[in-house]
């Protein structure tokens, strides 16, 4: 539509042909030249707006339009000088900004030079200089607007893809933490039920009832995690850690209460860390004792809330730090969002996982001093 607006300037050459100012041969050649010029102009500008052709093709078509405008203006009169407005518009629509600037000025200067040589110029040249310059530079602005719109659309698509990837990562972390803990507990209780079944059917039935309860809770947690509304809490995870360790036959030292006044985001991250750490102890450590401590610690870098999970199970190969799996990687990502850090401390006997979250100091209050 913006390109078609400029076709209104074609009234001058069309009127010149319809008025019978020329003989038959120049009139026929004028119509053919005008039709060719308009066709090449529309093909170049519209095609370049949708899908730019090769640069050599653009330069060739612009040269053809300029040459045709010169020939028609010199042979048919000053009414055809308006073709240079279209040459200027084509340069602004297809050339880079620096090159378009010079091309627009050269096209306008050429139009002026040809017009000055005409015998009956009148107000034709002054009336076309401004449309030629403004039309060319206006098309550079339109081209920049189109390019910006395309880049904005691509950026929105990229942001949407990144958001989808982030949501998939969140779901992967949540489902790993949820199902890993619950399925480990179900496996342990199933083994206990199998061993108790021949001699102690009543106790085996209790273990089966616990399995049913854990399964139902896992189903609720998964549904809540999918909906995005579930938030883990430290008191619940401390109780769950105590239950899981006891079911695995591991002597547990777990605090009865969680620190109060923690922000929701920090508390949720520490709850996930505790769940994943206890799950790893139950699954892989073979430990007989596990201690969980939560407290503030003052370091040279400031005050931190520290969660420490230490067991006396089998060490890693050569007492080296284990290769981070999905669980530890997910915990590190969660802690990073609240400026926390995750450390692992393998020893000759046992393994320690430490999570630290910085505590923001409370603003100091200035005591009020009353005057006498």
Question: Which terms would index this structure?
Answer:
five-stranded mixed β-sheet; alpha+beta; rod-shaped; 11 helices; 372 residues; disordered C terminus; 5 strands
Number of strands: 5
Q: Which parts are unreliable, with pLDDT below 50 for 5 consecutive residues or more?
A: 316-323, 363-372
Structural class: alpha+beta
Mean of the pLDDT scores? 78
Give the DSSP E fraction (strand runs of 2 or more residues): 5-15%
Order of SSEs:
HHHHHHHHHEHEEHEE
From the N-terminal CA to the C-terminal CA, the straight-line distance is: 81 Å
Number of helices: 11
- Work out the radius of gyration: 40 Å
- What would the principal axes of the Cα set say about the shape? rod-shaped
Please write out the topology.
Elements: H1 2-5, H2 11-18, H3 24-50, H4 55-76, H5 83-94, H6 97-117, H7 124-196, H8 201-227, H9 234-247, E1 251-253, H10 264-285, E2 289-299, E3 302-311, H11 326-337, E4 341-346, E5 351-358
Parallel strand pairs: 1-2
Antiparallel strand pairs: 2-3, 3-5, 4-5
Helix pairs in contact: 3-4, 3-5, 4-5, 4-6, 5-6, 5-7, 6-7, 7-8, 7-10, 9-10, 10-11
């Amino acid at each position: 539509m913006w390109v078609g607006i400029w076709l209104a300037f074609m009234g001058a050459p069309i009127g010149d042909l319809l008025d019978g100012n020329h003989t038959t041969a120049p009139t026929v050649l004028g119509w053919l030249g005008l039709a060719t010029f308009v066709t090449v102009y529309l093909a170049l500008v519209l095609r370049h707006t949708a899908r730019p052709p090769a640069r050599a093709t653009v330069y060739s078509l612009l040269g053809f339009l300029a040459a045709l405008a010169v020939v028609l203006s010199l042979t048919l009169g000053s009414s055809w000088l308006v073709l240079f407005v279209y040459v200027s518009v084509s340069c602004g629509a297809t050339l880079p900004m620096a090159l378009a600037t010079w091309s627009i000025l050269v096209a306008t200067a050429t139009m002026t030079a040809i017009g000055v040589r005409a015998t009956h110029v009148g107000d034709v040249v002054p009336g076309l200089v401004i449309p030629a310059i403004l039309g060319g530079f206006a098309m550079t602005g339109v081209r920049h607007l189109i390019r910006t719109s395309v880049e904005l659309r691509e950026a929105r698509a990229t942001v949407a893809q990144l958001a989808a990837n982030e949501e998939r990562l969140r779901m992967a972390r949540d489902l790993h933490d949820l199902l890993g803990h619950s399925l480990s507990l179900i496996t342990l209780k199933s083994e206990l039920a199998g061993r108790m079944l021949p001699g102690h059917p009543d106790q085996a039935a209790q273990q089966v009832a616990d399995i049913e309860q854990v399964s139902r809770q896992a189903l609720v947690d998964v549904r809540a995690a999918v909906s995005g509304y579930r938030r883990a809490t430290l008191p619940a995870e401390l109780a769950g850690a105590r239950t899981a360790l006891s079911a695995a036959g591991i002597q547990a030292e777990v605090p009865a209460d969680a620190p109060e006044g923690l922000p929701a985001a920090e508390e949720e991250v520490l709850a996930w860390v505790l769940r994943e750490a206890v799950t790893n102890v139950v699954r892989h450590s073979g430990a007989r004792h596990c201690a969980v401590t939560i407290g503030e610690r003052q370091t040279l870098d400031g005050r931190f809330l520290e969660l420490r999970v230490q067991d006396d199970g089998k060490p890693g190969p050569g007492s080296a730090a284990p290769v981070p799996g999905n669980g530890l990687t997910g915990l590190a990502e969660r802690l990073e969002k609240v400026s926390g850090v995750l450390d692992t401390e393998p020893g000759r006997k046992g393994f320690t996982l430490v999570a630290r979250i910085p505590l923001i100091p409370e603003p100091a209050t200035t005591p009020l001093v009353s005057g006498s």
